[in-house]
């Protein structure tokens, strides 16, 4: 696995990230404390951060927060997303693309 130390020395134009939990107030969250530093560093190393996730991750909480919504450039998700949840995120300034 690439460590956060290695990621600290990288620069990427686009980072495609995933998450098991995404809340409109708390941001991006994860249950695995060992993955959090690497995810944070990849977000920091990128010019553009794109979250790719399915509809089941919206409105969920997990143990560790690793990013704010405003760290994201936009979100890509499927058409199954709950319209109410989609609106909550859009009201926070998050752009969501539906596939």
Low-confidence stretches: none
Number of domains: 1
Q: Largest sheet, if any?
A: 4 strands, parallel
How would you state the average pLDDT, rounded?
94
Strand content: 25-35%
Order of helices and strands: HEEEHEEEHE
> How many beta-strand elements?
7
What does the radius of gyration come to?
13 Å
Strands of the biggest beta sheet: in what spatial order?
A: 1-4-6-7
Write down the overall geometry: globular
Tally of helical segments = 3
Share of helix among residues? Answer: 10-25%
Kindly name the structural category. alpha/beta
Note the gap between the termini: 30 Å
Quick recap:
The protein is α/β, with parallel strands linked by helices and 99 residues long.
Structural key phrases:
99 residues; alpha/beta; three-stranded antiparallel sheet
Please describe what this structure looks like:
There is one protein chain. The chain is 23% helix and 31% strand. The protein contains three helices and seven strands, in the order αβββαβββαβ. A four-stranded parallel β-sheet has the order 1-4-6-7, covered by helices on one side. Strands 2-3-5 form a three-stranded antiparallel β-sheet, with helices on one face. The protein is an alpha/beta fold. The protein has one domain (4-98).
């Amino acid at each position: 696995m690439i460590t956060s130390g290695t990621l600290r020395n990288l620069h990427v134009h686009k980072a495609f990230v995933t998450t098991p939990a995404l809340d409109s107030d708390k941001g991006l969250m994860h249950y695995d404390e060992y993955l959090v530093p690497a995810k944070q560093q990849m977000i920091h190393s990128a010019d553009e951060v794109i979250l790719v996730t399915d509809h089941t991750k919206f409105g969920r909480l997990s143990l560790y927060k690793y990013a704010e919504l405003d760290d994201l450039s936009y979100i890509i998700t499927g058409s199954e997303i709950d319209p109410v949840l989609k609106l909550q995120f859009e009201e926070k300034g998050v752009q969501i693309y539906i596939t």
